[in-house]
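Reading a protein record of the kind used here takes only a little practice. To see the layout at work, look at the sequence and tokens printed below.
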Amino acid sequence: MKQFFQNLTAFTKRERRGAYVFLLILLALVIFNRNIPNLYEHQPWFLNEDSTQINQWIKSLKPKELKLKAFDPNNVDIQKLIQMGLPASVCSNWAKYLDAGGKFYSKSDVKRLYGMSDSIFYKLESYLIIKERETKNVANTSVFTDKDYTDFDPNKYNYKQLRQSGLSESVANNIINYREKSSGYLKKSDLKKLYAISDELYEELKPHIIINTEPESIVYLDSVELNSTTFEELVDLGINKRFAKSLLGYRNVLG
């Protein structure tokens, strides 16, 4: 060994450095080899078959089972939905929809509820009970008799007038929100774009929807003094509120 270290002086600096590294690796292997049996002396808790912790962890990974029974989706509160085991977000959206005056006319309407996944709906579907509305045939046309509506103009009626026409709170709000964010309703079928109006409800409302498309109802802007008119005056002329705001904003930019 002494001779070995004496011979190191004959090596170059690079060769000596390599020899030192080799000795360190050799020493580490010897130490590691002696301590390998100690690594397996105590089995970790997660490898213990009798561990209660691992069993609880496995149970937590299992999906929560739904406790379902037949119910009317239009007559249920958030507490009952939670007791069934439905996700909190679905329960909340369900309750908000009913509180806003919404109604499920068919099982497929429940599937359209925000947050409702296909897997949850398929489990719910067979438990949903929706009472069929009484109908009567008038001139071979099926007319629903559970509610009476009066004629209304979705482009002009305010919230109070829409409610007086028999529309629910959610439908009235939807009609106004869509009207203010778009160019209004050009034809009756435009109301089918609203989330709150299902195909069945649209058929009920269709005979009462008034869309004024007569030429005399058109507003000609060249007869309006745009440099001095106010927002209220533009709205009174039948101009969409959003367009009126844009028009006045552009006027202010031009000075």
User: Anything to note?
Assistant: Confidence is low (pLDDT under 50) at residues 134-146, 214-220. The chain has four domains: 1-60, 78-127, 150-208, 219-254.
